[in-house]
Each structure stands twice: as structure tokens, then as C-alpha cells.
Amino acid sequence: MSVDPGTNKGSALPIIVIVLGLLVISLLAVVVFVDPIKVQPDLTLTATLATGTPQPYPTAAEVLPSPVVNIDGIAILGGVMALLVLVAVYREILIHRRVENMK
What are the contacts of 33-40 at 24+ separation with CB within 8 A? Predict the structure, then answer.
């Protein structure tokens, strides 16, 4: 009634790698298809340095650039690199299984 721990060794690894690959692909789809939220600073009440009283509209020198930066390219390249790593790991798992089965 003893169970050989070596018979089922590493059977969950390919499933985990495939699930991680699907997760990376779904996150890439989110990056590509979902539009970013436009964040605009509240510019209705800006104080001046000279008087300290709020002005209803900012001057040209006080307009702040939008803090939203387009990082779609960086996220896509990172996702592609993660998929390449997962494919390489999956390949090594299959090679290791083939070598174990030949013994």
C-alpha cells in the first residue's frame, strides 16, 4: 500500500505554465482593448504666489501636463517576453519528461 512519489512527479507543472500563459494573454488583451482613464487635475481654484487668493482659471505658466502616460507598447513587449519565457519553461518540462521516460 505504499505510493511511489516519483510516478506523478511534475504533472502539475505544465498545467501551471499553461494557466500562467492564459493569464498573460488575458492581461495583454486588457492592455490593448481597454482605454485608459483620462485624469485631469482640478484647475478651478489655483492660488497665485503674489496675493494668495484663488483664481478661477489658471494662467499659461500654471497649467500642468496630464499625468497619464501611454505605456501600451511597454506592457505589450513585457507580455510578449513573459510568453516567451513561459514557452521556454514548457519546452524544458517536455524535454525533461521525455528524458525521464527514456530511463
Answer: 36/68, 36/70, 37/68, 38/66, 38/68, 39/66, 39/67, 39/68, 40/66
> CA-CA distance, 28 to 95, in Å (whole number)?
28
* Alpha carbon distance 7, 11 (integer Å): 9
Query: Among all chains, which residue has been given the C-alpha cell 510568453?
Result: 83
Listed residue (56, 59, 35) closest to 45, CA to CA: 56
Q: Give residue 90's identity as a one-letter amino acid code.
A: Y
What is the rounded distance in angstroms from the CA atom of residue 36 to the CA atom of residue 56? Answer: 28
Q: What is the pLDDT of residues 54-72, one digit of tens each?
A: 556 655 555 666 666 777 8
The residues near 28 (Cβ < 8 Å, ≥ 6 apart) are 75, 76, 79, 80
Beta carbons of 20 and 86 less than 8 angstroms apart:
yes
